[in-house]
Amino acid sequence: MAQEWSHLIDKMSQRLAPSMAKDHPNLPVEKEEGCYYYGVDGKTYLDFTSGIATTNVGHRHPKVVQAIKDGADSLAHGPSGVIMYESILELADRLAEKLPGDLDCFFFGNSGAEAVEGAIKLAKHVTQRPYIVSFIGGFHGRSMGALSVTSSKSKYRQFLQPTGSYQVPFAQEDECPPGMDSEDYVVAELEKDFKRLFNHQVTPEEVAAVIVEPVLGEGGYVVPPKKWLEKVRELCDRYNILLIFDEVQTGFGRTGEWFASQTFGVTPDIMAIAKGIANGMPLSATVAPQALMKQWPLGSHATTFGGNPIACSAALAVLDVMEEENLLENAKEQGAYATKRLQEIKEKHEVIGRVRSIGLMIGIEIVDPTTGEPNSDGLFKILDKALENGVLFYFGGNQTEIIRMIPPLTVTQEQIEEGLQMLDKALTEYEQEISVGT
């Protein structure tokens, strides 16, 4: 089996675009289940990535697998609108019960980028305004509309010249001057940033929407104060601008509530959801109140594959599992335990900078111990050593300095402890190497 995979990996560079095939670590696996990947090398790997925050109820949860099989027995494809089927309508009803405020009308798509595209198009269509404001460090996808509001890394925008948006800084409490309350600081800065934007670059009457990740995802798991998001909401209301929450990564229990909107107590006008919605099946949704969505008439947006009946069946099973297994509470409990343990591990390792967390969305900053500066090279060496020890993490941050810890919400305290012990060992091995090198 390993020899067969070696041949396939050699072929990968010929048949797959580097932008698709060269992610890290390219671990050859033959099976996934629960919180584990099973490698072709015969090893079992504890997965702290959840398919990049997607398999929130664990890989191949039996109820989700059965829902997929049962769904395939009746319908494999829509397209919704040409035909209509029960799973998409039941899912809309179930999701409307979970979403905050009056977010109760859905346009189903296939991916997070599609959900963001839909949110941008809806906002522009309804307001008849041309521009969107987003936040520096935000990641909203790589299709052209979504890319126009993405700024987590400049390389994503290189040579593409996306237009139609303006960016302002995200909340950065670590930049607060000594002696000043950090929450008050970022709120005051936000007010100044919007005033500067509207005075010098674009009038508020031209802005259709402000889009924000309630917690920066790919941009480094930066958790803003509740007061900061409340100020974003207040500014949008003040200037009659729609507020879009990109909850592609923060949704479906990742922050300890169904959505980060509920964690922070701030409700947007439009929401983009995906990833955890169907536990790996391609599905997403642009969500808005009926009064807003009904201003988006037939032909202004459409889809062939969105709201696939099998994916909708899987999403219904996800909702069942999350309720039956009390996964919101588990996310809070295991997230708190993991954060406590990471702070203890941080005391032992100078290469760890800040640890940022909310629920089971945890970022571990890796720095050069001599300068305190972000250390991307060190991060990848640590990730490789952690993988050798048996645990898979992912990366993030503007300078690729953040280890992302995003296990399935089904993770147990024992699995958290096992994975963090592996990380602790990897950090020790790395620090020993750099110590010898100096």
Automatic annotation (TrEMBL):
Cofactor requirements of the protein: pyridoxal 5'-phosphate
Catalytic reaction equation(s): (S)-3-amino-2-methylpropanoate + 2-oxoglutarate = 2-methyl-3-oxopropanoate + L-glutamate; 4-aminobutanoate + 2-oxoglutarate = succinate semialdehyde + L-glutamate
Keywords, ordered alphabetically: Aminotransferase, Coiled coil, Pyridoxal phosphate, Transferase
Coiled-coil regions listed in the entry: 314-348
Keyword Transferase: yes
Transmembrane segments: none
Signal sequence region: none
Name this protein carries in UniProt: (S)-3-amino-2-methylpropionate transaminase
Protein's organism: Halobacillus salinus
